[in-house]
Specification:
Elements: H1 2-17, E1 30-39, E2 45-52, E3 57-71, E4 77-92, E5 103-118, E6 128-140, E7 145-154, E8 158-166
Antiparallel strand pairs: 1-2, 1-8, 2-3, 3-4, 4-5, 5-6, 6-7, 7-8
Length: about 170
């Protein structure tokens, strides 16, 4: 285990050392995000896409799914699942904070619908619209690939970690 951890640290160090800076988030720049998270109600898998509206503002859509087992006080074990589909907007603080080109730091607002299903409560009984705030950051390994992390809360709270793939700019004008 120590050898694997040591090799992983060396590999990450080499990648960071040879990483090129990212391109700015300009109008029409598209980036796809995906990964895994940690939450009180299971381990979410997520994916989404963002489109740059300016160097500092992006809008997008995201979906996540998490499933878990819980035990009631009576010892009954039941499954539940949550599908979250929504839209978000983020403000990027890169220029404001004069960050190096490899870093993105952002905060924003999401509006999403939570489709909740479990075996004890009425299916869909806890489903509904939710509003979350999020804050996160990225470290670009090269001009297209980044590692990301985000924390969000409001209707639901999650810590998300994953990757971002920045695609070529798309002319939306």
């Amino acid at each position: 285990m120590k050898k694997i951890l040591s090799l992983a640290c060396i590999a990450l160090g080499v990648m960071f050392n040879y990483a090129r800076g990212q391109t700015p988030l300009d109008f029409g720049t598209v980036q796809a995000n995906g990964g895994i998270g940690f939450a009180a109600w299971g381990i979410p898998l997520y994916g989404g896409v963002e489109v740059g509206m300016s160097r500092s503002i992006a809008v997008g859509a995201r979906a996540s799914y998490q499933r878990a087992q819980s035990t009631t006080r009576g010892g009954t074990v039941y499954d539940h699942g949550i599908l979250v589909v929504g839209v978000n907007s983020n403000y990027y603080f890169d220029q404001f904070l004069s960050l190096p080109p490899r870093f993105d730091v952002y905060a924003g607002l999401s509006i999403a619908y939570y489709f909740w299903h479990d075996a004890i409560f009425v299916p869909g009984g806890r489903s509904g619209l939710g509003i979350d705030l999020q804050a996160g950051g990225r470290y670009f390994l090269n001009s297209h690939l980044a590692l990301n992390s985000e924390i969000n809360g409001g209707s639901g709270g999650q810590l998300l970690v994953g990757v971002t793939w920045r695609l070529r700019s798309v002319d939306l004008r």
